[in-house]
Amino acid sequence: MERLIRKVLIIANLQKPAAAVLMDEIAFFLREQGIDAIPFGFFGKPEDISTEGVDFAFSLGGDGTVLYAARLLDNLGVPILAVNLGNFGFLTEISSCEWKEVFEGYRQGGLGLSRRVMLKVIVERGGKRIMTFSGLNDAVISANGMSKVVELDLRLNHNELGSYRADGVIVATPTGSTAYSVAAGGPILDPEMEALIINPICPFTLSNRPLVVSGNDVAQINVKKDQRTDIILSIDGQEVFPLQGGDLVFFEKSHSKALLVRSDRRNFFEVLRSKLNWSGGSDA
């Protein structure tokens, strides 16, 4: 069954050499099809733009461009076709020469969507909510600047789990399990699971291990007072917010999901095997 697409946002990281040409190529093709095309190219950190009426999006760049697109389009239910303009990432499974085939495959109903958990992060200070963030990969509480130990209390669904003395804590989605969290010793999850990972970074106590919890759980981290360093909260490694002693930070699954157009050429596990050099043979 053909899907009706009226307005497409084309998000392009212009630091990638091929991005500008490909953005124009896609826009020209869409307009020939009678589809409204909105090109948005950026250098460095992109500004938020209007998404009114958008019902489909292209992300041209790497995984970082997809992370930005997912946050920009959060709660809108807009599918994202992620085109890779470098080495294949865990989120960008589609090459620059495949975009048209994949787009037509999706529009004609032949290709589906990968529905990914988004993370919702709420910061409370003095009993008041002061900030709310969404992220596709992860949220990290850590020291600002050189590595220093921070002290944090963790609760899960109002149950006290203990305290961390560590370089920080990562709360990751299944999609983010292959990012910072795996480098910090966390597990790799199927990207469409309904779960969250709570992973301390270099904890002082070796018994503090990564936890995989239900997607229905709510984690609460209390930033203890009298820290020896400034503390920050980072979202997807792209948004940063300073925290203070006494702040409460809540992490839960968002009500919305990131919708990524599937590739029929390769899938998450093929990319995983390639990037981690899993041969599956005697020299694996």
Automatic annotation (TrEMBL):
The active site is at D63 (proton acceptor). One of its GO terms (biological process) is NADP+ biosynthetic process. InterPro entries: ATP-NAD_kinase_N, ATP-NAD_kinase_PpnK-typ_C, NAD/diacylglycerol_kinase_sf, NADK. Coiled coil: none annotated. It comes from the Bacteria. The keyword Calcium does not apply. One of its GO terms (cellular component) is cytoplasm. Keywords: ATP-binding, Cytoplasm, Kinase, NAD, NADP, Nucleotide-binding, Transferase. It is an enzyme of class 2 (transferase). GO terms for molecular function: ATP binding; metal ion binding; NAD binding; NAD+ kinase activity. Its EC number is 2.7.1.23. The keyword Glycoprotein does not apply. It catalyses: NAD(+) + ATP = ADP + NADP(+) + H(+). It is found in: Cytoplasm. NAD(+) binds at D63, G64, N137, D138, K148, R165, D167, Q238. Belongs to the NAD kinase family. PANTHER family: NAD KINASE. Involved in the regulation of the intracellular balance of NAD and NADP, and is a key enzyme in the biosynthesis of NADP. Catalyzes specifically the phosphorylation on 2'-hydroxyl of the adenosine moiety of NAD to yield NADP. This is NAD kinase. It comes from Sediminispirochaeta smaragdinae (strain DSM 11293 / JCM 15392 / SEBR 4228). The lineage of its organism: Bacteria, Pseudomonadati, Spirochaetota, Spirochaetia, Spirochaetales.
